[in-house]
Amino acid sequence: MSKIRYAMNGACGRMGQRIIALGHEDHGLSLVAALDSGKHPAFGKDAGELAGVGKLEIPITSELPFDQHPEVVIDFSTPEGSMEILKTCVARKIPLVVATTGHSAEQKREIEAAAHATALLLSPSMSLVVNLLFKLVQQASQALMGKGFDVEIIERHHRMKKDSPSGTAMQFARIIQETMGQSKIVHGREGIVGERPLDEIGMHAIRGGDNVGEHTIMFSALGETMELIHKGYSRDSYARGALLAAKFLAGKPAGRYTMYDVLGL
């Protein structure tokens, strides 16, 4: 069986390196290009050596070489990096998995529009369990809607994380708002803020150490509380999810896909 050829955008980052390392172990995948900013200190180095799997004869480049024809690209970079590779994938009709977070509303609209030209999968989290939790939170919201439940979201991440709150936490909030109808999101509380209204979602971002990622969604009413929790212990869960998404997306026709499609939900 032939291997699926993929390119990694954001190859110098922690997630990019881990995806390359795990992809190297996967007999169904073959890395053909590794991309990152020309300003990165590791620019020009061998992607395999950088990822700790030995020389692959694939240098880090800033653009996808014309002589390489990946069947899918994984983007785990920066919002600016996403927009650059998006142009290439649209022009060359290459399926794209966007795992980067922190995009502006305008950038998200541009990414969504690209689905008219090529297969596109955009998700705030590549974790399979997190995406299953999205579905469970939706079901809980539907069941508890209008029954006097307050909703709070607590997310914890490592000190290096640039965006806050996490894209995953915001996706949980959107799911809940669409179902339960809360009108606003409150980011932390300070001072005399008065009694908590039902039409808000409390959002709390914690940063410290090397925490890979935790999300707690709390539904609380008078007399009882339910918490739905995901804890990430290794970046490998996100890397493996991204690789699985890439396998799914390769060869798909133009259109918008989600991790629900990957999971068969």
From TrEMBL:
Domain Dihydrodipicolinate reductase C-terminal: 130-263
Lineage: superkingdom: Bacteria
Enzyme category, top tier: oxidoreductase
Record's GO cellular component terms: cytosol
GO function terms (MF aspect): 4-hydroxy-tetrahydrodipicolinate reductase; NAD binding; NADP binding; oxidoreductase activity, acting on CH or CH2 groups, NAD or NADP as acceptor
Record-listed (S)-2,3,4,5-tetrahydrodipicolinate binding positions: 158, 167-168
PROSITE patterns: DAPB
The reaction(s) this protein catalyses: (S)-2,3,4,5-tetrahydrodipicolinate + NADP(+) + H2O = (2S,4S)-4-hydroxy-2,3,4,5-tetrahydrodipicolinate + NADPH + H(+); (S)-2,3,4,5-tetrahydrodipicolinate + NAD(+) + H2O = (2S,4S)-4-hydroxy-2,3,4,5-tetrahydrodipicolinate + NADH + H(+)
Segments forming domain Dihydrodipicolinate reductase N-terminal: 4-126
Family: Belongs to the DapB family.
Purpose: Catalyzes the conversion of 4-hydroxy-tetrahydrodipicolinate (HTPA) to tetrahydrodipicolinate.
Protein name: 4-hydroxy-tetrahydrodipicolinate reductase
Organism of derivation: Telmatocola sphagniphila
